[in-house]
């Protein structure tokens, strides 16, 4: 389980460290930084997939995503009593991302390229570090990348050896390390980070792929846009927790039953009391289809280490939020869940009934956490 998330120099997140639990809810008013926190988690996952630099370039490059305020942000600045004025950065240009669990921790530091490249939006990876435990220290650091070189610590005597010396400035040691005999921990961390799952774009519009017949193939993981809903539902029915799926549908739509028809191409259908025939996915309301997409995602037969959902309540009628909350809580028994929500009703339900760990964000220039002191965190130095 990921216990700490740290972000510095990214959009409104000047220097934020938060503690995560098995079931975490991120709340806050519009503009408080919830979406930035979600994107920071996604960027960490994309580091392991070799897409970090491209994703930052798509956001406008490092200059567009950097924290735009001063290095230090006082209480007076936060309250508005002290005016924020232009200042030179003492610590240099830096965007840092990191996380840790009880087993491992990882951090990456990006900055401006030292040489002129033809791709001016691409930042350069300055430092990466991996350590055992939750907090970086001199004795538990076992992999370090500085510049283009990666050094690994020998477990036998604590000495260091050079493992790679020719990384490109935009290649992460996580995504490009390939020797299981020399750096197994790096490979394990890569697979763990690649397995993180994000849902923020489940489509329910009239042209949504989930409304059309889909190829029936083994699908233990629902696609990010829900395009393979029929195959994912049939996979749950075949090898997953089909009872929990049926219960989740009945909880939201009493008496309703879910089915998938078709062999080579399949379609989701729902039988509902009072109707003479089942309704196909193309006939379902946006809210009904979205709930089915969430159920298929949360009841995956291959649960990830962590699943992050951005505004899962979108398009749902308030009457479905109790069922959604129960579905989320049940899913948190198999995987770590992080939810970013705007819905006061869903937030109230989760606070009152399910013991969710809440991160309440506020913003006064920079994003800060209102309801907890930050856990300890140490960044690797350049």
UniProtKB/TrEMBL annotation:
Q: Coiled-coil intervals in this record?
A: none
Location of the ATPase AAA-type core domain: 23-347
One Pfam family assigned to this protein is AAA_21
| InterPro entries noted in UniProt | ATPase_AAA_core, P-loop_NTPase, RecF-like
Query: PANTHER family recorded for this chain?
Result: DNA REPLICATION AND REPAIR PROTEIN RECF, SLR1056 PROTEIN
Name the record gives this protein: AAA family ATPase
Query: What is the taxonomic lineage of the source species?
Result: Bacteria, Pseudomonadati, Pseudomonadota, Alphaproteobacteria, Sphingomonadales
